[in-house]
Automatic annotation (TrEMBL):
Coiled coil: none
Keyword Nucleotidyltransferase: no
Region (Disordered): 38-57
Transmembrane segment boundaries: 20-41
Phylogenetic lineage: Bacteria, Bacillati, Actinomycetota, Actinomycetes, Kitasatosporales
Cleaved signal peptide residues: none
Biased composition (Basic and acidic residues): 41-57
Keyword Nuclease: no
InterPro entries: Pol/histidinol_Pase-like (IPR016195), TAT_signal (IPR006311)
Stated name of the protein: Phosphoesterase
Keywords recorded for this protein, A-Z: Membrane, Transmembrane, Transmembrane helix
Length: 497
C-alpha cells in the first residue's frame, strides 16, 4: 500500500462511510433491477492441464468500462480549459463501486473520457476520489485508467497496473499520446502512426498496461463495412505490442437503449447481433480472422455506464446486465494477467455464472487462452469438454433465464494473412449444436463432451450459448435485451506438430 493511500485511509471517517452507504442504498431502492439474485463466481474450478484450483483462482466477474462524473466537458474559452464535472456521466466513482459490489462484481474500472488537459484532471481530482473509493468499497478491486482517446481510432480501455506510481503512469501516457489532451489541439496526434508509437512505448514500460478497443464497429455502416476502427489497425497495433493490445469488446455497453427507445450499444448505423458487436457475433468474421492467424485476441463485455436507464439514460449499472468473468485470484496483478492471457468468458443477463472449455489429447489438456500441443499421428482426436453453470435464482430483471442451446465453433489457424484488411475466416464453422438432452448434470454444473476427429492442422475452438431459438444471433431491433441473452467463451488453441 502506498503512503498516499495510508494517508487517504486516515481521512475516511465514519460519517463518510454512512454517507456513501446511503447513496448506494438510495440508488438501489430507486432501481427495480437491484437485488434480483446476485450471481457470484464459482469457487471450485478444476482444469485438466491447469492448476487453477491450486493457485486459488476462481471465476470473478468484473467490468473494465464504466464512467463517473469525471466524464465531463471542457470550457475552452479559457486558458487553461475549465473542466465541468458530470456533463456526460453523473455518478461519483464510489457510487459505481457500490453498485458494482451490489451486482456481484469483484473488480471494476472507471474509464472516463479525456479532453484538453484532462491528464491533469485525472491526476489532481479523479485519482484522489479513486483512492477514497478503494477504502470505502474494498470488496471491489478498482483499477486506475481511462477511456483513452486512441489516435485514429475510437475509444479504448487503458488499464494501468496497480502500483505506487499508477497515477504518474497514466498522466504520462495520457499527456503524451491521448488525441484530445493537447491544448491547443494537435492534429499530428490523431494518426495511426501515433497509435503504434503509443503501443510501442507502453510495451517497453516496466509496469505494462492493457489496451482493449471499445464498441469497435459502432461507426460501421453495414455488415463488414468498417468505420473508424478497421482490421488493419487492429493488426498493426497487435503486431506492435501483442502483450498490450489484446482485444475488443464483444458485447459493448449501452445495452439498455431499447428500454428507452434507442438501439442496443448505441449502434444506430448497423446494429448489434444478440447484443454483440458484428466483429464477434458473425461466425467466420473479423474475430475469427484474427484468431485464424494465431493471434491471442480476446473479447470482453462491459456496461459503458453513464446514466442508468431509469434516469433517462441507456445504461445498466456495472454488472447488472453484462459481465466479464476472469479466472483469477482476487488480486490486481492476477486479474490483469487473466485479461492479458484470455482466461475470460462473457455473458449477458446472468445466463450462466461459470464456463469452462477444455481440450484434451494424448494425455495433455488446455483451457481457454491456452494451447495444447499434440503430435501428428494417423489419428489425432481432440476431446472437447464444455462445463457451464446456470444461474441459481433470478437475474436482475427478476427472470430465471434458461440455456436453450450451446454451440461449439472451430476454425483453422493458417498463419498471418497476406492482407491486413482481411475480415473473414472461411474455415470457421459451428461443428456441433447441443440442447438440454445433450448435456448431463454434475453437481451444479452441466457438462457436454464432444470429440473432434482426425485433427491434422492447427486450430482453435470456442463456445457460445443462448436462451433463444435463433440459429445465429439476429440483428437487434427494439426487443427487450433481457429476452435475448448470449454467452461466449474465448478460444482454446490446438497446435499440431
Amino acid at each position: 500500500m502506498s503512503e498516499r493511500e495510508d494517508q487517504e485511509r486516515s481521512r475516511v471517517s465514519r460519517r463518510q462511510l454512512v454517507k456513501y452507504a446511503g447513496v448506494g442504498a438510495t440508488l438501489a431502492a430507486a432501481s427495480p433491477m437491484v437485488g434480483g439474485g446476485t450471481a457470484w463466481a464459482r469457487e471450485d474450478n478444476k482444469h485438466d492441464g491447469k492448476s487453477g484450483d491450486l493457485r486459488g483462482r476462481e471465476w470473478r466477474a468484473g467490468d473494465h468500462h464504466v464512467h463517473s462524473e469525471y466524464s465531463g466537458e471542457f470550457d475552452t474559452s479559457t486558458n487553461p480549459p475549465k473542466f465541468i464535472k458530470g456533463a456526460d456521466a453523473v455518478y461519483p466513482i464510489v457510487t459505481n463501486a457500490i453498485m458494482a459490489k451490489n451486482f456481484g462484481l469483484t473488480w471494476a474500472m472507471c474509464t472516463d473520457h479525456g479532453g484538453p488537459n484532462h491528464s491533469k484532471v485525472n491526476l489532481e481530482q479523479a485519482y484522489p476520489d479513486l483512492l477514497r473509493s478503494r477504502r470505502l468499497v474494498p470488496e471491489v478491486l478498482q483499477f486506475w485508467g481511462m477511456e483513452f482517446d486512441a489516435p485514429a481510432l475510437d475509444h479504448h480501455t487503458l488499464m494501468i497496473p496497480r502500483h505506487d506510481d499508477e497515477a504518474k503512469m497514466l498522466y504520462d501516457l495520457e499527456s503524451r499520446f491521448a488525441t484530445r489532451d493537447a491544448f491547443p489541439s494537435d492534429p499530428g496526434r490523431n494518426t495511426e502512426a501515433k497509435m503504434v508509437e503509443f503501443l510501442k512505448y507502453a510495451k517497453d514500460l516496466r509496469q505494462k498496461p492493457l489496451v482493449i478497443a471499445h464498441h469497435a464497429s459502432r461507426s460501421a455502416t453495414g455488415l463488414g463495412v468498417w468505420g473508424q476502427d478497421t482490421p488493419s489497425e487492429f493488426r498493426n497495433g497487435n503486431n506492435a505490442a501483442p502483450d498490450i493490445y489484446v482485444g475488443f469488446e464483444g458485447a459493448p455497453g449501452h445495452q439498455a437503449g431499447p428500454l428507452n427507445g434507442g438501439a442496443r450499444g448505441g449502434y444506430s448505423n448497423y446494429p448489434t447481433h444478440g447484443g454483440y458487436d458484428q466483429m464477434t457475433a458473425r461466425v467466420g468474421g473479423l474475430w475469427d480472422s484474427l484468431l485464424g492467424e494465431g493471434r491471442r485476441w480476446w473479447i470482453t463485455a462491459t456496461s459503458d455506464s453513464h446514466v442508468h436507464w431509469t434516469r433517462g439514460g441507456s445504461d445498466f449499472w456495472p454488472g447488472e446486465y453484462s459481465k466479464t468473468y476472469v479466472l483469477a485470484r482476487q488480486d490486481y496483478a492476477d486479474i490483469m494477467d487473466a485479461l492479458r492471457n484470455g482466461r475470460i468468458f462473457v455473458t449477458t443477463g446472468d445466463l450462466i455464472t461459470s464456463l469452462d472449455l477444455t481440450a484434451r489429447s494424448q494425455g495433455k489438456g488446455a483451457a481457454v487462452g491456452e494451447t495444447i500441443t499434440v503430435s501428428r499421428r494417423n489419428r489425432t482426436d481432440v476431446e472437447i469438454e464444455i462445463r457451464f453453470r446456470p444461474l441459481e435464482g433470478t437475474n436482475h430483471n427478476g427472470d430465471r433465464p434458461q440455456v436453450s442451446r450451446v454451440d461449439l465453433i472451430t476454425g483453422h489457424i493458417t498463419g498471418r494473412s497476406s492482407s491486413l484488411d482481411a475480415d473473414t475466416n472461411p474455415t470457421t464453422k459451428v461443428v456441433a449444436r447441443f440442447g438440454p438432452k445433450d448435456w448431463h448434470k454434475q453437481g451444479k454444473d452441466y457438462v457436454i463432451k464432444h470429440t473432434l476427429r482426425n485433427v491434422e492442422t492447427d486450430m482453435y475452438a470456442r463456445v457460445r450459448g443462448t436462451n433463444t431459438d435463433e440459429a445465429e444471433p439476429l440483428a437487434d431491433g427494439k426487443e427487450s435485451p433481457w429476452e435475448d441473452l448470449w454467452f461466449y467463451s474465448n478460444p482454446v488453441f490446438v497446435h499440431v506438430r
